[in-house]
Amino acid sequence: MEKTVIQKLTSIKTLGELKRSGYRTRTIKDELRENLITHLKGKKPMFRGVLGFDTTVIPDIQRALLSRHNMILLGLRGQAKTRIARQMTHLLDEYIPVVEGSELNDDPFHPISKYARDLLAEKGDETPIAWLHREERYAEKLATPDVSVADLIGDVDPIRAANLKLSYADERVIHYGLIPRSNRCIFVINELPDLQPRIQVSLFNILQEGDIQIRGFKLRLPLDIQFVFTANPEDYTNRGSIVTPLKDRIESQILTHYPKDIETSKKITVQEVRSHEAQKSAVKYNDLILNLNEQIAVEARKSEYVDKKSGVSARLTISSFENLLSAAERRTLLNNEAETFVRMSDFWGVVPAITGKIELVYEGEQEGPMIVAQNLISKAIRTLFVQHFPDPGKLKKQKQENPYRKIGDWFGSGNSIDLMMDIPAKQYAAELKKVVGLEEVVNKFYPDTKGDEKLFLMEFVLHGLAEHSLLSKYMLEAGIQFKDVLGAMFTGKTTDFDKEDDFNDEEFNN
Known about the structure:
Layout: H1 3-10, H2 15-20, H3 28-41, H4 57-66, E1 71-74, H5 81-87, E2 95-99, H6 114-123, E3 129-133, E4 138-142, H7 149-152, E5 154-156, H8 158-164, E6 174-176, H9 178-181, E7 186-190, H10 197-201, H11 204-208, E8 211-214, E9 217-220, E10 226-231, H12 235-238, H13 244-249, E11 252-255, H14 262-272, H15 277-282, E12 283-284, H16 287-302, H17 315-335, E13 340-341, H18 351-355, H19 362-367, H20 369-388, H21 392-395, H22 405-412, E14 416-420, H23 425-433, H24 438-445, H25 451-467, E15 472-475, E16 479-483, H26 485-491, H27 505-509
Parallel strand pairs: 1-10, 1-11, 4-7, 7-10, 12-13
Antiparallel strand pairs: 2-3, 5-6, 8-9, 14-16, 15-16
């Protein structure tokens, strides 16, 4: 509605004025449908900040709303199910009239509560009207095993009966639950399978006929509600199930999913990361760093150690990127530096963000959460290294010149470097530049890269070669040591991140 129309409407204070204005109410499902039609014709975006669903989930939701369906959003954790439900309020009218003082948001033209019916019978056109904003027309309940019928539907209130001196047979002694109080609203139940079956049964008539049953009362309240349920497929086997008759009454089941490409996933991460302004100005990063962060989640979703039924939430990449920036910021604070560029060694600071976001299968528990997280980082490096630099494993097969030969010779001569995680920028640069041939490789494939970004790529090459078993990477107490693989074998130093690939010294040096 236009602003002037809204102001004119909300100035109406009685039912008589409302009738004279020509205002006509409509059900919430009709309201959502008609406003969606306006959105579609005007090609307006429906959900802000929900990315990657334009051709899959969102069209399904639109079809459900056009069909005036209740719906269930079914998907693994971290797939924006609750965000979608909350943003449906944007399709509601900005204000709707209600009978003033009604706890069930009674429509003045179609009252359902005894309070509103009695008030209308007493005052007629002088019945006072209030206006309910769309942001107040959303209710949400997380399903937990302790949720009761009284919470959702209602119960008899003995204190009210005593105070008003009413018989328990009087409808006014009822204390209504969340669902009746959400009349003319969007009502969301998250994690539906967690509701006990007997509680799910109490929803049958509400979804189908609009009846509610409270103790011995025979009530028929034609509730006007848009129901949205959410569930995780894992819940069907691990914690409960949706009883079949209830599932049958939910007209549309919509499947959500994780981002189908890294570009979409990156946009989500950048959009959701909560970093302080001081951190944004102090810590710089490039696209490769973002890709590495996203690839960790990709590797987790493929990992044999991670429970695929549980899923890997998009919150993993968001939390890990926040930790990554904080690891770099911490270093600037320790070294009294104004700014810094993210380093590869900063990625070991994201381990706590990973371990809290993945569910491990038995084999993963045997390995340990920290080792699994570190291996996921290593696999991400291995995957992206060959997308930015020549694959060491293919050089000999394709009879190409080995650009890493000088690096291998330098380490093969008994040299090693220790990259401590919190060393100052000058010391970090000096350590990397000691490696003969390292800067040459970066200059060859990225000639326009300079400064801190070049140093990052130099360190990335060392990690990439280590992940392809051409160097040994050994975790120190507060850093990483790189040395020749054979030297590490003779000294007995190995790393948790070493891959099972066979090392072929001849192939490396050819």
